[in-house]
């Protein structure tokens, strides 16, 4: 027998033929102790999801609705990105299992909910060693159908049952993450009205959701402190922006699901770059650092907070002047957040302050009125982004909602949104004085609309320049 033929049928990391080796399959099926595992869900998740389903049900009487958690995107070759469930699906179920499906069937005046999940492969199942997504040899002990049903107070069935009866879903309304081929094969319908209604419902948070956001924001505030403590060492040892980004991301992963979006750390001339997620530059001494960071809770509700801090503890005179103007605009925006006010009122209030300040500095070459007019907007050169957005399961929550639902609707209690004016003077922008080039400042808070006004959920972080300096130096001293 040759050396080649004496080798086992496969010795690599992929699975082609092990299941055909009887000795192997019988031996790997035996000798495993059962490890009971419960789903990791926040208290109240099931009740909140049931309430969300009831609200959606009332909008579509007699209609079957199908929602999907989705599947992970390929990172490269046979490696996937870490799975993150679809936000609409999570809002309706509280479940974050890859490949899971929800069916809402009309019953009487409401709907009956069934959650279909891929059951974990236990010892004795071929998938135990052959399925890298759900085999417990690969992913560890996992909750089963009964455990999920108990945790979420919903009927849970094995995913193959969904496949077996999917032909009965002809005409059902499907969310975007339901596989397109399945939608076409079964005859389901992608409904613009379904997505519009889901967005509208998700804009107003219930008490449970607000609690999840408070948790995410509190952890985010602590994460800002963790990053501030690392600034001196990142400068002294040349570790750079990437070190501070990693510091926050580690904090977010420790106290939540992870960062709610790509963490932004922009030092010096990188601060004006709106989405500086590369974070591959140095942390410069005695320059401002723009930090845009948010912890995503394990329920997937995320914070979104920005502060601009002086790396050495003190702003330069030019940085201080820019920060003061942004703070003034920020406070003008916050003052507009209350029930009954049009959503965009905060935007216009903050923009007026910015345009007026730029005019006073001589940066704006036209009048304030001309700049603020629909056909002007010259001041937007220095803040081309929006000044806020809804916040929830997505950092830009419900961003695909219709304009009249999102920006044309008055604020109401339960809305959680951000207010984030800024000024961004790029280092190569010859329209501004040399002393302003390379300065970027943003202030962003997460704000809850209450019955009588608003509450700044991230108020534990200061917004005025003197307090920001004091906060920064206090954290440097605690390093």
TrEMBL record:
Catalytic activity: Release of any N-terminal amino acid, including proline, that is linked to proline, even from a dipeptide or tripeptide
Sample GO molecular function, one term: manganese ion binding
Pfam families: AMP_N, Peptidase_M24
Protein name: Xaa-Pro aminopeptidase
Organism: Leucobacter aridicollis
UniProt feature coiled coil, ranges: none
First-tier enzyme category under EC: hydrolase
The protein's Enzyme Commission number: 3.4.11.9
Cofactor(s) of this protein: Mn(2+)
Protease in keyword set: yes
Entry superkingdom: Bacteria
GO cellular component: cytosol
Every Aminopeptidase P N-terminal domain range: 47-186
Family membership: Belongs to the peptidase M24B family.
Keywords: Aminopeptidase, Hydrolase, Manganese, Metal-binding, Protease
Annotated InterPro entries: Aminopep_P_N, Creatin/AminoP/Spt16_N, Creatinase/aminopeptidase-like, Pept_M24, X-Pro_dipept-like
Gene Ontology biological-process annotations: proteolysis
